[in-house]
UniProtKB/TrEMBL annotation:
Residues 37-89 are annotated as: Disordered. This is Ferredoxin. GO terms for molecular function: 2 iron, 2 sulfur cluster binding. SUPFAM superfamilies: 2Fe-2S ferredoxin-like. Residues 87-190 form the 2Fe-2S ferredoxin-type domain. Keywords: 2Fe-2S, Iron, Iron-sulfur, Metal-binding. InterPro entries: 2Fe-2S_ferredoxin-like_sf, 2Fe-2S_ferredoxin-type, Beta-grasp_dom_sf. It holds the Pfam family Fer2.
């Protein structure tokens, strides 16, 4: 028996099973760990295995929750992109493409993007959106608001050098708001009254508007915290 005990004590700690001795708090050698007859070992095994299984299930639930989070992320991204894409309109203008908030004034959206609906010196000499100078006249394909001439447009686009028949296709960029994707054409002449389409904008023609923020002083939607037109494609 003593020889057997010595043999157990010589076992590495990992292979021996020690159980508490009743009433003394001391430990007694129980058996070789893993022996099927050992109740202490098997109860510890089962508690350890259940804790490990619960830990593994918790880890698996955590991993499944993490994987479900990971799985949700890629699904959320396209929705986010759709929302972002749906929040504005695209405007094609003289070889450039820009994005603007839906409802932005067309003149403001172009100026914010470093472009302009005015030709040459009309960039400096214009009414800043009052609807009286007629220099922001452009042809618009797409949905704008209002869909037909305003009273100001009717007056100005019938005042020389604007007039029939060329005026029929024109709108004043300062009087309309962007409601859908637009294609905007600018024609030649100080007032944009000519027959030739203006070509693509060069890199040197893109820049801030001459009067900075004062360019938008008559744009009520910008004063009220409306669209900025700053988003570019
Ligand atoms: S800026 Fe003068 S009419 Fe549009």
């Amino acid at each position: 028996m003593q020889a057997a005990l010595n043999s157990w004590r010589l076992q590495p700690a990992g292979l021996a099973c020690w159980a508490p001795r009743a009433g003394s708090g001391a430990a007694r050698l129980c058996c070789r760990r893993g022996a099927p007859a050992c109740s202490a070992s098997s109860s510890r095994r089962s508690s350890s295995s259940s804790s490990s299984s619960s830990s593994s299930s918790s880890s698996s639930s955590s991993s499944s929750s993490s994987s479900s989070t990971d799985a949700a992320s890629p699904k959320e991204q396209p929705q986010q992109q759709q929302q972002e894409a749906g929040s504005g309109v695209s405007i094609a203008f003289r070889g450039r493409a820009l994005r603007a908030p839906r409802g932005a004034k067309l003149r403001s959206a172009l100026l914010e993007a470093g472009l302009t609906p005015h030709n040459g010196r009309a960039q400096l000499i214009n009414c800043r959106g009052l609807g009286t100078c007629g220099t922001c006249a452009v042809e618009i394909r797409g949905e704008v608001e209002p869909p037909a001439w305003t009273a100001a447009e009717r007056l100005r686009l019938h005042f020389p050098p604007h007039g029939p028949p060329g005026n029929g296709k024109l709108r004043l960029a300062c009087q309309v708001s962007c409601q859908g994707d637009l294609e905007v054409v600018k024609y030649s002449g100080f007032w944009g009254q000519g027959a030739e389409r203006q070509g693509a904008v060069g890199a040197g023609d893109v820049g801030p508007p001459p009067l900075g923020r004062l360019e938008f002083i008559l744009d009520r939607s910008k004063r009220d915290g409306g669209g900025t037109g700053e988003e570019r494609m």
